[in-house]
């Protein structure tokens, strides 16, 4: 947009402005005012989180609230991390939940998606339709029986109820990968078949390497889904030593709302929230394209 | 194409007694690939669905074996004057407002991003961001931000010598506050809309300009009709998600104040895991399922009237 580009020479700027006319200029200004106001309303809550993380109790309970505390208590981050065993919580989340669940989701969804897209067999499309329909089943219908099943299996207070089902494919990801697999030319598979490659070999050597962008989307969503998951652990895990960060933080919050709260609980809560948001920000920063294309892909075949 | 090649092979080979027909072979290969899903579907969906139906007809508290009570759980739900009306009212109030308003918010944000702007990817990232932040972080931030005494928003209001607004502590305002937060966290729907908007053929707009259409005409007669399939998709997802909204109200208000945010899912969760009324919770879950299916079907059936399938992309 030349009109606001700072490098535009004055004469160019004048010409563009004249071309836009008074009405056009006003529309442009209104548009940017709206954009910036909206952007502010999206950014300020997070800004509030970060600055509140740097406060101490008197600064939290100041009326009217201060936005930027002085002095800033940077050691809140360190203290918040240790007021509850957050190192252990994050190890639980990453190694017991997120990584195995991501691995399971990607592998199983890819294998199943292959069967639903690259092999022709009678009844395939009916089964695929059923698979898509399962997305409509609310989790709350399955919640009670699944809890009973996992309790009978003795899996409560472990991550197995959250990880093992991931190895059986997930309808949404199967759908996503199938759509992607369908775009890969059939000639590649045929060439491999002529060379004596079996179906699994075709999936492993040809389809998967070509589907890396789609696999990245699935992996990213699976990992973030596990990192952000609250309801799953809430149901299956009640032993504090097994808590993921999500439950650790909500446990910290409970002590904020309780009477006789521990000192600095609000700042600690905000510090811990900041720390668990940072990995997401980093992921997002490096994989913005993957995120955006992945989500756009889900809406395409609506 | 695979058929052609695999057909060629049995002809070339001498006939063997145990040789499977091509059809059977491809069926077996296909089933082998989708078998993880089939096993998972039977174990983690069909079996739980059936046993949920079974529990819903029983009195079950996890400790003692289930006792058959027929439709009593359902009857109990409909005759409980103390909770049911509140829970149903809250849920409908929330879903009927939050779902359409969320879609409108997502659509307007996407439309704004789709205009010529400097730093589009920057704004896009900012608008999307709340959608990937953990729900509990969103809940904590807003809980603090909206606090009557110490929250930043009321601080600003007091700074302008206005009286503070008890967003989350007033039963009248708690649901509207949740609906506003929902409008704020629309990143996914927004990105889906943005991708759709970018796919609208330019030629349509050019033709409209030739016909003397202004910006509003273009928006109303081209942009919106071209987006209706995706509006329908996002609306259905918003309704399904709205009925199952749990984490945010649970962590923000836990059903309060004075039961103003006691939604269906929260009440269901309480019954299941706090009162251990597993049978009753299962009955509630089936009613939820039923309502979701009915609403989805109604929306799909009535969609022919307003959804425009003009483009081959759909």
Give an overview of the whole structure.
The complex is a heterodimer of chains A (302) and B (314). The model of chain A has no long low-confidence stretch (mean pLDDT 86). Chain A is flat, with a radius of gyration of 26 Å. Chain A folds into 2 domains: 2-76, no CATH class; 79-300, MetI-like fold. In chain A, helix 9 packs antiparallel against helix 10 (199-210). Chain A is mostly helical. Chain A is built from 15 helices and no strands. By secondary structure, chain B is an all-alpha fold. Chain B has one domain (79-305): MetI-like (MetI-like fold, Orthogonal Bundle), CATH 1.10.3720. Chain B has 14 helices and 2 strands; from the N terminus they run ααββαααααααααααα. Chain B has helices at 2-12, 22-56, 72-79, 84-113, 120-128, 135-145, 152-159, 171-184, 187-199, 202-210, 215-243, 247-252, 264-274, 278-302, and strands at 58-59, 67-68. A two-stranded antiparallel sheet of chain B has the order 1-2. In chain B, a hairpin with a 7-residue loop joins strand 1 and strand 2. Chain B starts with a helix and ends in a 12-residue tail after the last helix. Classes of the chains: A mainly alpha (302), B mainly alpha (314). The interface between A and B is large, with 97 and 101 residues.
List keywords for this structure.
heterodimer, A: 302 residues, mainly alpha, MetI-like fold, 15 helices, 73% helix, B: 314 residues, two-stranded antiparallel ribbon, 2 strands, globular, disordered N terminus
SSE arrangement:
The complex is a heterodimer of chains A (302) and B (314).
Chain A: H1 10-52, H2 57-60, H3 75-83, H4 86-117, H5 124-133, H6 139-152, H7 160-163, H8 171-181, H9 186-194, H10 199-210, H11 212-228, H12 231-236, H13 245-257, H14 265-286, H15 288-300
Chain B: H1 2-12, H2 22-56, E1 58-59, E2 67-68, H3 72-79, H4 84-113, H5 120-128, H6 135-145, H7 152-159, H8 171-184, H9 187-199, H10 202-210, H11 215-243, H12 247-252, H13 264-274, H14 278-302
Antiparallel strand pairs in B: 1-2
Helix pairs in contact in B: 2-14, 3-14, 4-8, 4-9, 4-11, 9-11, 11-14, 13-14
């Amino acid at each position: 947009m030349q009109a606001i580009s700072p490098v535009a020479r004055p004469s160019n700027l004048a010409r563009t402005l004249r071309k836009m006319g008074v009405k056009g200029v006003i529309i442009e200004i209104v548009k940017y005012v709206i954009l910036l106001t909206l952007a502010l309303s999206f950014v300020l809550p997070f800004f509030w989180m970060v600055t509140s993380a740097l406060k101490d109790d008197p600064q939290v309970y100041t009326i009217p609230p201060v936005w930027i505390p002085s002095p800033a208590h940077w050691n809140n981050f360190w203290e918040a991390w240790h007021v509850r065993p957050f190192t252990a919580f994050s190890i639980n989340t990453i190694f017991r939940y997120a990584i195995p669940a991501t691995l399971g989701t990607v592998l199983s969804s890819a294998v199943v998606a292959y069967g639903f897209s690259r092999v022709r067999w009678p009844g395939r499309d009916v089964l695929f339709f059923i698979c898509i329909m399962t997305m409509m089943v609310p989790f709350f219908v399955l919640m009670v029986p699944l809890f009973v099943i996992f309790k009978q299996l003795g899996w409560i207070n472990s991550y197995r109820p959250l990880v093992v089902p991931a190895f059986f494919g997930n309808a949404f990801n199967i759908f996503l990968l199938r759509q992607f697999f369908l775009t890969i030319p059939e000639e590649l598979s045929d060439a491999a078949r002529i060379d004596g490659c079996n179906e699994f070999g075709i999936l492993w050597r040809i389809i998967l390497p070509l589907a890396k962008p789609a696999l990245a989307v699935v992996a990213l969503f699976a990992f973030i889904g596990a990192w952000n998951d609250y309801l799953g652990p809430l149901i299956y895990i009640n032993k504090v030593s097994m808590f993921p960060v999500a439950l650790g933080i909500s446990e910290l919050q409970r002590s904020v709302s309780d009477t006789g709260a521990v000192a600095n609980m609000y700042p600690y809560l905000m510090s811990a929230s900041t720390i668990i948001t940072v990995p997401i920000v980093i992921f997002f920063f490096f994989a913005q394209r993957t995120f955006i294309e992945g989500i756009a892909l889900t809406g395409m075949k609506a | 194409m695979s058929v052609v090649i695999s057909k060629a092979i049995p002809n070339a080979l001498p006939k063997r007694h145990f040789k499977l027909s091509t059809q059977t072979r491809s069926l077996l290969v296909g089933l082998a690939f989708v078998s993880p899903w089939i096993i998972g579907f039977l174990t983690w969906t069909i079996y739980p669905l059936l046993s949920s139906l079974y529990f819903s007809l029983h009195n079950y508290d996890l400790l003692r074996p289930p006792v058959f009570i027929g439709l009593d759980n359902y009857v109990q739900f409909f005759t409980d004057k103390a909770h049911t009306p509140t829970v149903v009212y809250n849920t409908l109030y929330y879903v009927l407002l939050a779902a359409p308003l969320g879609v409108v918010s997502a659509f307007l944000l996407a439309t704004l991003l789709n205009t010529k702007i400097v730093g589009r990817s920057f704004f896009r990232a900012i608008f999307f961001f709340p959608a990937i932040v953990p729900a509990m972080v969103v809940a904590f931030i807003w809980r603090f931000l909206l606090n009557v005494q110490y929250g930043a928003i009321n601080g600003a209001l007091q700074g302008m010598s206005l009286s503070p607004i008890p967003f989350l502590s007033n039963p009248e305002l708690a649901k509207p506050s949740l609906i506003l937060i929902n409008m704020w966290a629309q990143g996914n729907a927004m990105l889906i809309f943005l991708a759709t908007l970018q796919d609208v053929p330019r030629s349509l707009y050019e033709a409209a300009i030739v016909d003397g259409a202004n910006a509003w005409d273009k928006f109303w007669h081209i942009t919106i009709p071209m987006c209706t399939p995706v509006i329908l998709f996002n609306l259905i997802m918003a309704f399904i998600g709205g009925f199952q909204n749990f984490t945010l109200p649970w962590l923000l208000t836990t059903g309060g104040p004075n039961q103003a945010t006691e939604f269906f899912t929260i009440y269901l969760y309480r019954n299941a895991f706090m009162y251990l009324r597993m049978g009753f919770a299962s009955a509630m879950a089936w009613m939820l399922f039923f309502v979701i299916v009915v609403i989805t079907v109604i929306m799909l059936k009535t969609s022919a009237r307003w959804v425009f399938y003009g483009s081959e992309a759909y």
